[in-house]
Amino acid sequence: MIAANNICIIETLTIPAGYYALDCMAKKAQIEFLHTVWQEPGKFLIIAKGSEADIEESYRAGVLAAGKFLIDSALIINIDRRILTALDSSSKQTPDCLLIAEFSTASRALQSCDRMGKTVYIDFREIHLCKSLHGRAFAVLGGCLSDLEAAAITGEKDFSAPVQIFANPSPELTASLGR
Predict the structure, then answer these.
(1) Peptide bond before 41: cis, by omega within 30 degrees of 0?
(2) 126 pairs with which residues across the strands?
(3) Residue 117 domain flag
């Protein structure tokens, strides 16, 4: 397990291109793959982490290998650790307010969440990347109303649909999250 806060995301238009990019990335430098999944409709998502030098080198190799099949990509140095936790689990705390945002790609989601988390204090309740969403992603953030409003302003250029902020979310809404 690599202890680093540096990640790269590569999304390809085809599954073979995704596997080829993954292979090239793995051969280029020592990195750890966090997510390597195909998604609907026939796309491929790679998220890897490593030291700054290794992740930059692997990222360049993956982008080059994806070529014309690259949909989107991102290199995030020193990503907010809470984002990595939210990719694998859901927060069970009941928040004062919720913000739900949708993104056109996983790359945009992670870049935007990182910017929002570095701007104001928010709880990354869950982040869903492209699972049965035709390549889209969404994030559920918790916090106080003023922080979520500031987060919405920070991330607004990345959203693919209007965000929704819920003040005092109902128990039914919070129970429906994380499914």
Answers:
(1) yes
(2) 140
(3) yes
Residues 88 and 156 in one domain: yes
- Closest Cα partner for 47 from 111, 100, 102? 111
Measured CA angle at 94 (ends 88, 96), to 5 deg: 120
One domain, residues 92 and 43: no
- Indicate if 45 and 96 belong to the same structural domain: no
36: how many CB neighbours lie within 10 A of its CB?
17
Size (the chain), residues:
179
**Domain range spanning residue 102?**
81-171
The secondary structure of the chain as a DSSP string is -----EEEEEEESSHHHHHHHHHHHHHHS--EEEEEEEETTTEEEEEEEE-HHHHHHHHHHHHHHHGGGEEEEEEETT--HHHHHHHH----SPPSEEEEEEESSHHHHHHHHHHHHHHS--EEEEEEESTTTTT-EEEEEEE-HHHHHHHHHHHGGGBSS--EEEES--HHHHHHTT-
What is the per-residue pLDDT across 44-96, written as a single tens digit (0 to 9) for each?
999 999 999 999 999 999 999 999 999 999 999 999 988 988 887 666 667 78
My answer on whether 72 and 86 are in the same domain is no
CA neighbours closer than 13 Å in the CB half-sphere of residue 66: 25
